[in-house]
Each structure stands twice: as structure tokens, then as C-alpha cells.
Amino acid sequence: ESLLKAVQQSLLPKDILINEQAIKRQLQGDKVLILLDAFDEIHKEENALLLDIISSEVQRKSTVIVTSRPSYFPQQQLRHFDSTLRILEYDHKQILAYAERYAEFSGRSMKSLLDSIRRKRITDVWRNPLNLCIIICLMTSDNQQAVETRTDLYKELFQFTIQKASERMKVTYKKLQSLYINPLCQMAFKCLCEGRYTLTDED
Questions:
Q1: How far apart are CA 65 and CA 29, in angstroms?
Q2: CA geometry: angle 107, 109, 115, nearest 5 deg
Q3: DSSP string for 75-90
Q4: What element of type H or E holds 105?
Q5: pLDDT single digits (tens) 103-133
């Protein structure tokens, strides 16, 4: 029952319509894959049973895959895995190589951007592979803005998304904000105040 509770509370969206008996049947099978995504974002009080799953104290026949920021995952638990994979940050040479390949395949003029990278006019936020991809896409768009911090990155990505949505829907930014952005922000704030991380059909 405690394992079923852990699956329902930590591993499945709260609004998913799956019968308890169906979950029990799956857990009793010979081939069960348990994916613990974003383990570092799980509440501490839920960790105990999940750590038992990882260490095969329960659900011994299962295959377990965990994704987490390394600094937030208990290092002593790594011994329970047959293999581990780390996504490392890029160094300066790799950042430049990525940007040069992007320029080659996209056919876009990126001289000023490449010059900035060659002169090391970049910050640590560029070293994350996903961040780098987004930054280069943003800086080669019509609205080129320098990205130096994570806040810059999120701000520019938000503005870019809103701009594209506004163009596609043929409405002004102000109307888009009134019709969609503000209500979404209100729902998100309500969920945050209630300690929830997902939206339901009722929301």
C-alpha cells in the first residue's frame, strides 16, 4: 500500500485517471520500469520510500532510472546503479564549436556572436548545453539581446515566446496578456499557495 501511495503521490500526475487495481497489477509484473525524474525536486518526506525503491528494498525486480542534479542526489545511493551518466558543462572551445556548427547548418550570419565567443565575452550561463542552444537561437533571431545571466535568459525567452504567439494569433501583446498571460499567472500563483505543482481540469 505504501508503494502504491508513493506511485500515486510522487510518480504520476495528480489528475491522471488510472485505476488503483491497474497500478497494482503493473507493480506486480516481472518487467517494471520506474522513472524518477527530477529527483532533486521531490519533497524530503517522500524520499524515504523512493530511496527504498532505488536500493531494491522494495520492488526488487524493477528497473529504476533517476534524473537529478548531482549535488542534490545522495552520493551513497550511486552504488545501487549499474551505470551513471553525467551531463557536463561545455568549456570555451566546445561553446565556440557548437556556435560555429550552428552558423554552418543554419546559414545565418553570426559574425558578431562568434567574435564575442572567441573573445570570451560570455558568462557561465552559456556553459549549460540546453542554455547555450536557447541563447544562440534567441541571439540569432530578429531581436538580438545579450544574455549574461539566467534571469536574462528567462526574460528573453519569455519575450520571444510572447512575440511569436502575438504574431501567430494576430493580436497585440496587451490583448494577449489580458486574455491568456494574466489568467495563467493567477492560476500558477493559486497552485503555488496551495502547495501544488500541476494544473487540473478544474483549474
A1: 17
A2: 130
A3: GGGGGG-S-----PPP
A4: helix 92-106
A5: 888 887 788 888 888 888 888 899 999 899 9
Q: Which helix (H) or strand (E) holds 54?
A: helix 44-54
The answer to whether the CB of 11 falls within 8 A of the CB of 38 is no
Give the count of beta carbons closer than 10 Å to the beta carbon of residue 135. Answer: 25
Q: Please compute the mean of the pLDDT values over residues 146-168 and round it to a whole number.
A: 87
Residue 87 burial (CB count, 10 A): 9
Q: Where are the beta strands (DSSP E) in 50-164?
A: 63-66
DSSP line for 162-202:
HHHHHHHHT--HHHHIIIIIHHHHHHHHHHHHTT--S--S-
Residue 94 has pLDDT above 90, yes or no: yes
Name residues whose C-beta falls within 8 Å of residue 193's C-beta, 6 or more positions apart in sequence: none
